[in-house]
Design goal:
This protein is of the alpha/beta class. The protein contains six helices and five strands. The protein has a five-stranded mixed sheet, sandwiched between helices. A hairpin with a 5-residue loop joins strand 2 and strand 3. It is flat, with a radius of gyration of 17 Å.
């Protein structure tokens, strides 16, 4: 469901909507950051997926697994300045397991500022079909579906083209 690249989300959403409409089937939207967290199934402590959103920003959220093995959302996925995220996590003063492609960009910064940070191995830092599928099955059983017509990708922020257009229009006024 997003976040992700604007083009990728548009293509994926259009394909899913087309299939859902043609087959009269519901859609299950899986938040990208939540799927990344699910890669670390059964890890103890806080899980913080980070996706590089450029300009010192990451798409992130905070999760943990409860004693029954259910993924619990502590903070919904949002775009955030990486330094603000680190400050937020330092206040929590607990071990944090990071995952996602943002590790390649911000891993050394995180490790230099946080004594309780762990970086997931490379094979767990990408979207994995198994994690997305397991979450989709869980969401479907819980009734977390939408009609194909209702589905919208979650961009979390406006595209660069939309930002530049707004700047141009603001400059004209």
């Amino acid at each position: 469901a997003g976040p992700g690249s604007f083009t990728g989300l548009r293509i994926g959403s259009a394909t899913a909507k087309g299939l859902g409409l043609a087959l009269d089937k519901p859609l299950v939207g899986i938040p990208t950051v939540e799927a990344l967290a699910y890669n670390l199934y059964d890890v103890n402590g806080l899980i913080c997926p980070i996706m590089d959103a450029r300009r010192n920003q990451v798409y992130t959220g905070l999760y943990r697994f409860d004693k029954s093995g259910n993924l619990v959302t502590e903070m919904e996925q949002i775009p955030m300045d990486v330094n603000e995220l680190i400050d937020l996590l330092l206040e929590k003063d607990e071990e944090v397991q990071f995952t996602g492609d943002g590790i390649q960009v911000y891993g050394s910064l995180i490790l230099s500022k946080m004594k309780h940070a762990c970086l997931a191995p490379a094979h767990l830092n990408k979207q994995r079909a198994g994690a997305v599928g397991a979450l989709a099955e869980k969401y479907y059983r819980e009734g977390k579906t939408v009609t194909a017509a209702e589905h919208q990708p979650e961009y979390l922020r406006v595209s660069q083209a939309e930002r530049e257009r707004a700047e141009r229009e603001a400059g004209k006024k």
